[in-house]
Write a sequence for this structure.
């Protein structure tokens, strides 16, 4: 039996992939009311972003054929030229636009270039896909049940491997589960549960505002919002994550983005990154929301002041961008799937490989 810890995107898709290979699977989830990064994600799928992502759209469609609608949609991605973090840098904007166009051409796609009255670059409109977090969260429980995934609710306190015997998973409240194979897919909590992952796996805090359609009805929507997701061409989060090893102190950046989310919208996002290895306490939500709104005010003042509910979640990442997926060194039977960049595009292909390897290992 494979025990999968964590019922976010990684844990749920892993559980489905393992069942397809005939393995018995138990999926351990925390209380359903707890928010996860997967739930508040834009769910964007840039299949043209790298060769490893090229099959992402096709794999989501295959998942839907097997498990029913999961929220997959073709849409557009509009990358705007606004900058929520001073200073503005028109040269960097033009360079980022050119780099992205080249990547699209290499992937056999093309972008619509949006120019201003003076011929200046305003943004790009690209083909894109997205998985709606609200639809996905509503569909997964029934899909997992139909696939024969056993569910267990509980919060893991510790993972113990007493020698050659099975892994023991101690839960809050005193229960213990045992399994020969454990897949740790607990997102940002993965390092708390297995601290040796700490040098590679880092955590940022991401904050977004959830707006109802009514909240937005009276506002001018940014260009591209009616057909898909809107994000900045000069996104700052990824660059900040890459700087983590040399970061002297915690830093926050705002990437002005807007994405449909069920019948509502997500407006974000602020990312707070701590230096690598430093404890990641939850930041003050009032400070995070104020910083998010002041960054948004530079780009979309009409949206920045709307009343909306603020949410923040921890997200795992690696500074190198290389995901942490596979067997864990010096811990036979323990596997991990965390720190995956662009996970809505990267996880479907990665989890096919992971499930094949786990199935092969369980037979040998
Ligand atoms: C605003 C925002 C926008 C984003 N946009 C995109 C995007 O466009 N495209 C994209 O690909 N990605 C995007 N992401 C990133 C993406 O959402 C996350 O990286 C991804 O969902 C992480 O999935 P996960 O399953 O690894 O982790 P999580 O979703 O964090 O799930 C972890 C699971 O582990 C459980 N868990 C934790 N601790 C324990 C414990 N002790 N015991 C038992 N269970 C535990 C949690 O309850 C949860 O169910 C975005 C994220 C945010 C916040």
């Amino acid at each position: 039996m494979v025990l999968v810890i964590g019922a976010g995107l990684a844990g749920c898709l892993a559980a489905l992939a393992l069942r397809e290979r005939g393995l018995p699977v138990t999926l351990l989830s925390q209380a359903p009311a707890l928010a996860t990064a997967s739930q508040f994600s834009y769910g964007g799928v840039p299949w043209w972003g790298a060769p490893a992502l090229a099959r992402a759209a096709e794999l989501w469609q295959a998942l839907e054929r097997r498990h029913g609608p999961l929220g997959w949609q073709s849409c557009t991605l509009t990358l705007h030229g606004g900058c929520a973090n001073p200073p503005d840098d028109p040269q960097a904007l033009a360079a980022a636009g050119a780099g992205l166009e080249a990547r699209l051409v290499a992937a056999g796609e093309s972008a619509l270039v949006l120019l201003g009255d003076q011929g200046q670059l305003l943004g790009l409109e690209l083909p894109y896909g997205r998985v709606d977090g609200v639809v996905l969260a509503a569909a997964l429980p029934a899909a997992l049940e139909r696939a024969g995934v056993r569910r267990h609710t509980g919060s893991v306190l510790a993972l113990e491997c007493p020698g050659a015997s099975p892994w023991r998973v101690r839960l809050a409240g005193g229960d213990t589960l045992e399994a020969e194979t454990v897949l740790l897919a607990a997102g940002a909590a993965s390092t708390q549960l297995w601290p040796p992952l700490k040098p590679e796996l880092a955590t940022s805090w991401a904050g977004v505002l959830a707006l109802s359609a009514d909240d937005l009805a009276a506002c001018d929507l940014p260009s591209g919002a009616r057909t898909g997701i809107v994000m900045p061409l000069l996104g700052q989060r990824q660059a900040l994550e890459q700087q983590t090893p040399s970061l002297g102190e915690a830093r926050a950046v705002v990437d002005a983005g807007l994405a449909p989310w069920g019948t509502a919208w997500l407006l974000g996002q602020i990312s707070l990154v701590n230096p690598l290895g430093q404890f990641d306490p939850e930041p003050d939500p009032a400070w995070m929301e104020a910083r998010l709104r002041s960054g948004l005010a530079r780009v979309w003042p009409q949206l920045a002041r709307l009343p909306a509910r603020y949410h923040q979640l921890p997200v795992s990442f690696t500074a190198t961008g290389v995901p942490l997926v596979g067997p864990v060194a010096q811990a036979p039977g323990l596997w991990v799937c965390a720190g995956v960049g662009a996970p809505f595009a990267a996880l479907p292909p990665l989890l096919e490989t992971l499930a094949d390897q786990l199935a092969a290992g369980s037979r040998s």
About this structure: The chain has two domains: 2-69+132-199+322-363, 73-131+202-318.
